User: Fold these one by one.
Assistant:
Number 1:
Amino acid sequence: MTAELAMTSDEYFAYAYQSTRSSSDGEATLGDLVTFVGQVANDRQDKGVGRAKIGDHIRASVALAQREGRGQVLVLGAANHVVENGGMRGTLLAPVSLYEYFRLSLKRVQRALQMTDPEAMVGEDFWAVYQEVILDPEVPESQRTKVASMLEVFHRFLVIVGCEPLMRSLVTGARVAPPAAAVVWLEELEAAIRFVLRAQVSQEVKAQCVLGLRLAYYLPIRSYELWCIRVGDIDGTERVTLDIYPRRRDGVRKTRATRRQVDITERELAALMLDAQRYRRAQGASDEDVLFGDPAKPDGRFEEMLCTRLMNVALKVGTQSDGAALHDLRHGAISRAAIEVLKGGRFVF
């Protein structure tokens, strides 16, 4: 299982983003990155060696970015994606080109994303943010097309972590067809759960992953919101309900989708949630302790990195798709809710 859980770079940065709950206006991370890339570009060394040094610097900056906030981690991960994947045509970029593009764009994009919830933005919101960067007077007209191309690659990482794709090309302005949303079917979910139950991990990790997968399948819940559920957010008095409500101390700023209450109508999921609540209370957890919590660490999450990776690997196995990830479950939950509305049912989310 250790080998199976090795992360790709994109998955590592996606985890770093999804596990970060703070928000601030700090700019040290990306300021340091731009300065470092400029130094590498000035060294005029082998381009491959220079890119490797930039990648090492980016990975070493993750902890600082996480202290600054979700927007900073998101932009850092997207910058790494550009370093590793190159331009629109897949050609790897020289450090001097990376410096020019990063200098002109990274901090501007960061300022637009750091105090909001990127997963609540639509494709047109991102397009408008990127257009402001491209048309900024400080961006030379001769560089605008190249910056636009870089930002399109940059946005591919945002889509990986669950943000909406762009609906228009930044280079041509032409509308593009949205990619088909990856919907996980029930039989694929069950196959993913069987993989989890066979994994060589503790029973506590297995139970947490099974509950996390079922929650994300039946409810349109964001990845980070799983880790913000408190013991007291589950109410089983008359029917089982869940209050999806990241707290201020989670660092998540309020949006229209931040707090909502949902009914848990799927019986197995309802039973699993009540079992998890009883288990945490037996550990001495209060209503304000996190449901996926570590009894040894107040307000700490239990094996968050391992569980996130195991759920993602399980979905890849269950769907037979290398691109499957936890946020894909949200597409299915939203699609099923829309179908119920079309049938004349009630939209409960």
Number 2:
Amino acid sequence: MSEKIFTVKGKGLKFDTIEDIKPHLEKLNAIPDVREIDLGGNTYGIEASKALADALTDKSELEVARLDDMFTGRLREEIPTSLNSILTSLLNCKKLHTIDLSDNAFGIATIDPLESFLSKHTPLEHLFLTNNGFGPLAGARVAQALEKLADTKKEQKSDVQLRTVVCGRNRLENGSMKAWADFLAAHGSIQELRLYQNGIRQEGIEHLFLNGLSKSPLLERLDLQDNTFTVKGARALSQVFPSWKNLKELGISDCLLSARGGEIFGQTLIDGAVLHNLEKLKLQYNEIEDRGLELLKNAVKHNLPNIKLLELNGNRFAEDHEFVDEITHIFEDRGFGELDELDDMEELSEEEETEQEDREDSQEVILKDAEEEEDQNVAQERSTEVDALTAQINKTEL
């Protein structure tokens, strides 16, 4: 396969003109039936990008395009034109199933060419968009483009399914979650979704779970680390979790699950079917306490027979807790499985434990009232933030 790969990755080259990039394009064109290109770690100007686009147009066997970190030092006005040239040419590559555009400062200014490509490229299976500076508005438009792609695939009777979407560190926030849920529901084929470090709060997480991920039965890997769940998000996760029969990895560390949220999720693991496929469970820094740990221990013992990694560092119990010892013994008896190093645990003082108990009692009353309201089919209050963003998106599209 190596003879089918063209790479200039990480060379720190600056391509401004056609002459600058010409020697490299000659090497690209000398590779018959090139399958993969890796252009990242260099910087491409408008003229060089057009020349590159011309060279890519006839690469009918191209399957993978790694285009991360391609515009460092470029003016904001340059990037849309350069990106448009490259992505337009890639529409001709009918076997191109994987594209990585991470670490490019797109933001809202560069969304048009990206949106156009994503809505049209039917061979797409794996998309990587991490650290692109989108924000909620551009992030919503990315999701809307992917929703349109589902329609395009149907119209063209394509049997190629979108399976992987990675969009971490992009400030997607609550304002784009309706669009992301709609995209997931439109495809129903996602096997891997990673939306870590996006500033999504509990209302957005809840919507994503209940309206998008609930309609993703093929899910194998989910990474939502460093967003905010609280009890609301934990309840939504627990509601849809049983539908993911193929789940292999769940990452929800740094999500403020809360003591009660940890108990809710732990109980879900116990109450459901045996999860033969789940191998990695990441729950660091979530304020999980003794009762949540006990439930997790029971889940490991009875319902997680093939778990290989359980991450619990940074929660609220002692590293030498008896339930930690029991989990370790379960792994030893099986001959596989491990806990992460519990070197940063947050133990509560007696005063904090009393305050926590009082707070949980208060939360129970609030949750009971909320559940009674749900039973009465009270309409969910609309988020003014989401409404404002939706109006802005619609205005942009007109």
Number 3:
Amino acid sequence: MAPSPSSPVLCSSWATVDDIPEERLAELQGEGVDTDPDALNRQLLRASEILWALSGRTWYGAGCEEDAVLRAFPPSIGTGTWPYHESWGSCGCWVGGNWLDGRFYPGLAYRGVHAAPFAVALPRSPVVSVEEVLVDGEPFTEWNLIRSGWIERTDGRPWQVCGDATVVTYRYGEPPPQAGIDAAIELGTELAREGLESCRLPPNVVSVTRQNVTMEIEANDTERFRTGLYGVDLWLDTVNPYRRPQPAQVWSPDVPRLARSAHREV
């Protein structure tokens, strides 16, 4: 089995040469297509990245692993580029402060310790599994992973979010549904045919003159055609009919940056 090349945007390719049916491989070989596993895997990864973008940047494939260091302030110039999520806090590690209407105000009359979260959301999604949690360099096991990607402590104490004390190693990303894998195979094998006479004709071809290579094509309807492959475009229209470039997010000025249910005074 030839290893799939790595991608700068995906955790893994949606399909590899091992997913191509034998009859399809035999058909490609008969057409003179380069069926070297490394060459085909490159085309399948190319197709995966295209379909990932066209389908709304939802399925990253499987296999990404990342260390999340919990820090209670967002990255800024000169302080690093670590993964960060707002549920970890948007304040520094102040000694004094207070909660008022769901917001943390530092330096008020109340004397206490930094307000820390009892549950935090991991920065990438979807979260597949948590491999390890270290607190002060020691393995920590009193936690629970919620399907939505939040990890909560089960010992009744808040997460330490100061001094790089907590490190969560987790895996994220998931493969597309079977129809997406089939679409990647269809588009990838078609990309492998580039430059060959066996390349499939686009669906908006009206007539073809073989000897003089004359082809009449109707005006391209961008509402109907994305890749020119019926099966691929049918799947794209199903999962992303409105052609959104990425999953939708909800923001409201009435919702504080720190979730009330995930934070308490300590």
Number 4:
Amino acid sequence: MFSLAYKRYVLMTLTIIYTLSFMDRIMIGILMQPIKEEFLLSDTQLGFLTGIAFALFYATMGIPIARLADRGNRVTIISITLALWGGMVMLCGLVTNFMQLILVRIGAAVGEAGCFPPSYSLIGDYYPVSERTRALSIYMMGISISIAISYMLAGWINDAYGWRTAFLFVGLPGLLIAIVVKFTLREPRCDTNKYSANQVSMPSLGKVFSLLWRQKTYRYLVAAITLINFAGIGVGQWYATFFIRSHSMTTGELGVWLGLILGISGAVGTYLGGYIVGRYMANDVRAQLRFMAVSVALFFPFTLMMLLASNKHFALFMLIPGSMLALSIYGPVFSIIQQLVSEKIRAMAIAVTLLILNLVGMGLGPQVVGIISDYLTPMLGVDALRIAMVIVTFVAFGSSYYFWIAGKTINKELSEKQCHQVDSCTSQIEPEPVKVSL
């Protein structure tokens, strides 16, 4: 139906949107120290700003937006929410107090919530199962590209013009790309009427939750990615502040280092995760989950070496394997979730997943680090943040455990789904009995 060139254009455009919509989250990590100094904030307040204040609305608004995406025009939804995101990010540069900053961050969260579930669902329609893992891994590389660009831009702009200018600079492209999306991307449902009959029989929200909850594998996967998000984002959001406090680095210097290291290693890790799974484990979902379990378990020792290193260059070097391992799992795990659910609830499934993992991972991770850091500061001084990050990193082992036990149930549940689909198709084509009049 769609040419290979157009499918690549769609994937590239959606990846750019994901890259852009993630930038404000990365930028605020390196800008936390200057924001703290201007508004005289505690680490607990910084954790609230970058964690639960953003994650609560990002996660909860994803549910109604995904509901619309499963029923309506996903291209229009992406366009509108991307424009909202761009406007709110620009307003971050105009705030005059901490409360205003929280409110515009909430607005940015709502805008960003409308980008991922519809995009994820679109990729599922444009790419068949055999190509989906690699396509989603390329899409997920937007995180790493965003990290590379955001850190370098934020560090340089902050040193030259201040942290407010960085937000103004990043928000504007969101408004422009929203227009491009609206007029160049096509909604497959409009072209094929593929879902016209299904829209009438869309399952209720309660039914969706029930269907997802009954799948053990889905529950295990959500627990696994929630815990690695808690450890990865909880610690990662404080990387820049840690290097500023513990290694006396400037934001400009850090922007280059973190941008290159986390951006390149994250992109390589994301791509390799999709490549390894697609190339060597395409027909063995259990092996894919074992691969993810080992990857997140290894995240802990490398991050621990980074946090305890006395030399800043060795600490920065240790970010490379940690970043590659943490990001290698996202393409494969989201591809597995797509296989577990039906097409009618694909966007809703990812929204429910994001609701849980972002409330706990993105929301509580940075917040818990900030609280522990403030608690330990009277005793440990500048090293309080370091120890708080070490404590939170331990959670990665819980993620490894859930990926491992998901491998015990995945094959059975995929088989049950296939059998159910065959039975449904058979019942739809079974001829009605012929009534004979005597």
